[in-house]
Write a structure and sequence with these properties.
4-stranded antiparallel sheet, 1 helix, HSP20-like_chaperone, Small_HSP, SHSP domain-containing protein
Length: 151
């Protein structure tokens, strides 16, 4: 039983626990979760930038091996990045004070623009960062035919 009162209802376990404004909401993944998504799915952050030569996606995947990640391009130019973060083994004598790192499956999907070369997609994993590079196709300018004006 805690001796530290909470002004927001209930009691805190120690003075370092902070009030969670979303603790009574009917979802567990935080304010930005979508029903049906797991916390690990929602927390996989990916940056997408466009350069003159390519579209570049970067995902922070600390502790995930490249063998645990799958990068696919589906019909209709859908880039899918998925994988599985392993759960740490629990020992009988362990006493957990806080579990904040996510584990389990994750998946993100992006519709690629029409000007990409899906057959030349490359992916690399370095220091826990997955980089997917999707080269751009040259935009062919329409042929312009000059018409002589008679008269």
């Amino acid at each position: 039983m805690s001796l530290i009162p909470s002004f927001f209802g209930g009691r805190r376990n120690n003075m370092f626990d902070l009030w969670d404004p979303f603790q009574d909401f009917p979802f567990t993944g935080g304010a930005l979760s979508v029903p049906g998504e797991t916390a690990s799915f929602a927390s996989t952050r990916i940056d997408w930038k466009e350069t003159p030569e390519a579209h570049v996606f970067k995902a922070d995947l600390p502790g995930v091996k490249k063998e645990e990640v799958k990068v696919e391009v589906e019909e209709g130019r859908i880039l899918q990045i998925s994988g599985d973060r392993s759960v740490e083994k629990e020992e009988k004598n362990d006493k957990w004070h806080r579990v904040e790192r996510s584990s389990g499956q994750f998946m993100r999907r992006f519709r690629l623009p029409e000007n990409v070369k899906v057959e030349e997609v490359k992916a690399a994993m370095e220091n826990g960062v997955l980089t997917v590079t999707v080269p751009k196709a040259e935009v062919k300018k329409p042929d312009v035919k000059v018409i002589d004006i008679s008269g």
